[in-house]
């Protein structure tokens, strides 16, 4: 017995206007019959099927007005008996729901509407009917006005498909202190916020952000591989393989991987190595009988990817041995150490519970919202992310230290402004 949540019915109605008449649905029942022999006598089935809330509201209102109508009837009947009776019949009409049984004898035959089955309303939102034959699956649908059988059949198919699938997201986060270590996992969309919080506590953060949600059925798989100038390994040795995650709504499938650049001289025009994780959905029909063996990449590479996530890795400064006669042009390496300086500043501000708005940084409100969403429970990380976002908006020629000192003084933190100036002049970044 598969219960049907009212929210699921509402979602289907919101997606398709043709289902607007549907009020509710009973549980979706799957039956295994021990014998193919016909029934000797009919079987009474009782199922919960929520009533129409509009009808219940009307009945409550009619209780309040019943005494008034009775008084009016006694007084007015003597003068206009026929008109009063007609008026009372019109006002006393309730919203009449229709109940239909849908089912299928076998999967090959498909869904069918059983118009000859009489369904009766019982108390407390229960409905009952007599069943005279074997049905592998059936459901009762309540609708408020006439709906063609074609739409009912479409609704039953959509309902069955929606019940069997769960909306999910792919998360790919990396260790803050070691960006070469990543975790990839599947999470049900309704548990995404909780899962992100758990990853933050373990020291994993984005970017990239989680993918858009997509439907997955129990037991379906997501295969992924890395493209571009980044590849991955589970053991630090075998790189370039295809990896997979098996979806289970009650489990949290995850993989911890190590990533590295394919070509250390690649992406020469960028300060980072760039790559992409490409994900493919493997349905249960595509999975081989030996499910523990991964499906060959050639079996699904022709299909469109389920989603993609962009990755970057920082480049290391290469130590090159040059002869003494070679003149080396020194570059300002302080830019690479700004992250340490900003993180120190974030820790100092977080100790005093400084709010993001109190920093007086010229950033958009959407940036503040994104920072709070990205690090909901860690003020240090929020301030650090905000400072990084502000720094990215500045041109290369800007004096970052002077600007940041100005905003610190404006925020009432002259002490930190002076200490920042000292650290910058003495190249102290820890």
TrEMBL record:
Gene3D superfamilies: 2.60.220.30, Death Domain, Fas. Residues 342-420 form the Death domain. GO terms for biological process: signal transduction. It comes from the Eukaryota. InterPro entries: DEATH-like_dom_sf, Death_dom. PANTHER family: BA1-643 (PTHR28336), DEATH DOMAIN-CONTAINING PROTEIN 1 (PTHR28336:SF4). This is Death domain-containing protein 1. It comes from Eudyptula minor (Little blue penguin). The gene is DTHD1.
């Amino acid at each position: 017995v598969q219960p049907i949540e009212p929210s699921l019915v509402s979602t289907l109605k919101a997606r398709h206007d043709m289902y607007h008449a549907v009020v509710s649905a009973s549980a979706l029942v799957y039956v295994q019959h021990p014998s193919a022999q016909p029934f000797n006598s009919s079987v009474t089935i009782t199922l919960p099927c929520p009533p129409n809330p509009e009808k219940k509201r009307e009945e409550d209102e009619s209780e309040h007005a019943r005494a008034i109508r009775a008084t009016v009837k006694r007084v007015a009947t003597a003068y206009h008996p026929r008109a009063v009776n007609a008026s009372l019949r019109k006002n006393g009409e309730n919203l009449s729901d229709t109940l239909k049984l849908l089912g299928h004898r076998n999967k090959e035959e498909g869904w069918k509407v059983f118009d000859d089955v009489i369904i009766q309303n019982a108390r407390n939102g229960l409905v009952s009917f007599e069943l005279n034959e074997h049905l592998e699956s059936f459901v009762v649908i309540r609708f408020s006005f006439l709906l063609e059988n074609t739409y009912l059949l479409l609704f039953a198919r959509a309902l069955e498909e929606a019940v069997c699938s769960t909306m999910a997201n792919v998360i790919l986060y990396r260790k803050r202190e070691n960006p070469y270590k990543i975790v990839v996992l599947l999470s049900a969309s309704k548990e995404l916020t909780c899962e992100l919080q758990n990853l933050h506590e373990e020291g994993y953060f984005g970017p990239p952000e989680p993918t858009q949600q997509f439907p997955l059925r129990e037991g379906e798989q997501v295969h992924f591989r890395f493209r571009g100038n980044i590849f991955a390994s589970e053991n630090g040795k075998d790189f370039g393989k295809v990896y997979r995650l098996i979806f289970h709504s009650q489990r949290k499938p995850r993989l911890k991987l190590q990533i590295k650049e394919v070509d250390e001289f690649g992406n020469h025009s960028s300060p980072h190595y760039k790559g992409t994780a490409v994900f493919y959905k493997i349905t249960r029909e595509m999975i081989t009988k030996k499910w523990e063996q991964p499906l060959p990449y050639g079996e699904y590479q022709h299909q469109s990817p389920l989603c993609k996530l962009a990755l970057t890795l920082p480049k290391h400064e290469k130590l090159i041995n040059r002869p003494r006669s070679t003149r080396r042009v020194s570059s300002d390496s302080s830019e690479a150490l700004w992250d340490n300086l900003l993180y120190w500043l974030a820790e100092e501000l977080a100790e005093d519970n400084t709010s993001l708005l109190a920093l007086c940084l010229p950033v958009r409100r959407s940036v503040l919202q994104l920072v709070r969403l990205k690090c909901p429970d860690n003020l240090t990380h929020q301030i650090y992310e905000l400072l990084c976002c502000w720094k990215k908006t500045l041109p290369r020629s800007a004096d970052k230290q002077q600007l940041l000192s100005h905003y610190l003084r404006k925020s009432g933190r002259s002490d930190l402004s002076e200490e920042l100036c000292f650290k910058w002049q003495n190249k102290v970044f820890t």
